[in-house]
Design a protein that fits this description.
Length: about 250
């Protein structure tokens, strides 16, 4: 049974703090942990974050007081985050280019939202969106995050559609992982890893559908807003410094 909105326990800020924590676990696993059970748990929990970011991007776009300032923040933190991102995920060197960060992906997703709202011609809209999706192939969560964003745009104001959007998102992510594992793992192992990877996305869906009350924290909203922006580059910078210090 679905809870009434007033009975749901988690506000937007709490879910975002959860997303920051699970992202940290995922990044620690990627950078420092050897393959094993702990690695898989941390990795898969971290997949909670991207789908939550895309969901709140769509929601935030709908309710923001200034789309211009929202875009400016995304662009600023895309620039700020790039060096820490490269520093954290470089292997066998101090720093190398490893594509663009999730902040860049979210910026492209914002442009998708802008295109859906502003471009009237269906053909022009489809072409611009396709180009933005293709551009994301140079970024973290390539292709998938823009598709998540489109699904959440489609699902706005419909619980049934939102359920479908999260289900499709989890399924696409599982398929994405399965395709990447072909030739590397046995069929059974590949299925296991792919289904396990879907858990984080599914957990994100459960949080939004059954626990999210649609509210913000009553206190510290401005602090939380900027914390979420700064956490991304700062934690990557710290992980990158630790990686170099550890000789990894």
């Amino acid at each position: 049974m679905e809870l009434n909105q007033k009975d749901k326990l988690l506000n937007k800020d709490i879910i975002k703090y959860m997303a920051m924590f699970t992202m940290l676990l995922n990044h620690i696993a990627n950078i420092f942990l050897p393959n094993g059970i702990l690695y898989e748990i941390c990795l898969n929990l971290g997949y909670f974050t991207a789908v939550i970011m895309c969901y709140f991007l769509v929601e935030g776009y709908q309710y923001t007081h200034s789309k211009k300032r929202y875009l400016q923040r995304l662009l600023l933190f895309t620039l700020i985050s790039q060096i820490p991102y490269s520093l954290a995920f470089t292997t066998e060197a101090y720093i190398e280019f490893h594509g663009f960060s999730m902040m860049a992906t979210l910026t492209l997703c914002f442009f998708i939202l802008l295109t859906v709202e502003k471009v009237k011609s269906r053909l022009s809209k489809a072409i611009v969106i396709l180009l933005l999706i293709l551009l994301s192939s140079f970024c973290d969560w390539s292709l998938l995050a823009p598709i998540f964003t489109l699904l959440f745009i489609w699902a706005q104001n419909s619980t049934a559609r939102l359920k479908a959007a999260f289900f499709i998102s989890a399924l696409l992510f599982g398929l994405f992982n399965f395709t990447g594992g072909i030739g590397t793992f046995s069929l059974g192992a590949n299925l296991f890893y792919s289904v396990s990877a879907m858990a984080g996305v599914g957990l994100g869906g459960l949080c939004i559908l059954y626990l999210y009350n649609g509210k913000r924290m009553q206190r510290g909203q401005n602090f939380s807003k900027w914390f979420f922006y700064f956490f991304y580059p700062v934690h990557l910078l710290i992980l990158g410094i630790i990686r170099i210090a550890a000789g990894l």
